[in-house]
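Shapes recur. Our protein:

. . .
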Amino acid sequence: MDPRYKTVTDYVVRRFTDHLGDRLQSVFVKGSVARGDCVWGVSDIDLVLAFDRPDQSDNALKREIEAEATRFPAGDSLVIQRIGDDRLRQMSAGTRAYWLYSCRYDTELLYGTQPDHFLPEPPKGIELAKLIAPLIHADGAVELGKDRLERRESRHLAKRMLHALALPAIAGGKLEYVPPLEVANLDFPVRLRSHMDAILTAYSQAPVITDTEPLSRAWRDCWAYIGDFGII
C-alpha cells in the first residue's frame, strides 16, 4: 500500500477499534490500493471492516468518520464497507462470489485477522467466472456511450476489461487469480492484443479521454472473445 494512505487508514482503524472493541474481527483494504497499482487522487480507498450486528451507533460513527476523513490526504476517496456472516447471507450468489474472490486475493491487512482465515473460500474455475462475469459487464458498461471519459471513468472501464480478460484463464483452471497489470502476459488473439496498450494506459494513468471509440471498440471485442468460452 502506498504509504501516503496511512494517515487516513490509521485514523479509521483507531476510531473503529476504540468503538467496536472485541466485536471487530478485522480491518483491511482491498482492490488497487492493496495491490499497489492504484492511481493517487483517482482510486478509491476500499476499506473493509469485519464485524456482525451493526447498530445505530456503528452507523453514526461510520458517517462521522467519512466526513472527518476528508481532512486527510486522499480522504475524499475513502469508501468504508462491512463484511460479516449476515451481509454474506443477504448477497446474491454473484455478489457473494465477487466479494469472497476480492477479499481472498486483493487485500492488505490493517488490523486483526487475515480475511482468508475467517471468510469462506470463493468458488473456483468456470463456476466463479460465470458468477462474476455479469457483474463485471454491468459495472463497466455504465461508461459506454459517453462522449468524454473523466479520469475515474476511463480507469474504471479499463479495470473492468482487465478483470474480464482474466476470466478465460480462471474458467479453464489455469490460474486462480490474475492481477490486472499481469493480464497482458496472457495469450490473446491479435485483435485483442491490438487493444492492450490503450487498456493498460487507461488503467495505469487514468487519463481524460475525449475520443472514446477506441476503448468502446476494445470493450466490444473483449466481450466477444469471452463469449467464445461460454462464460457469458
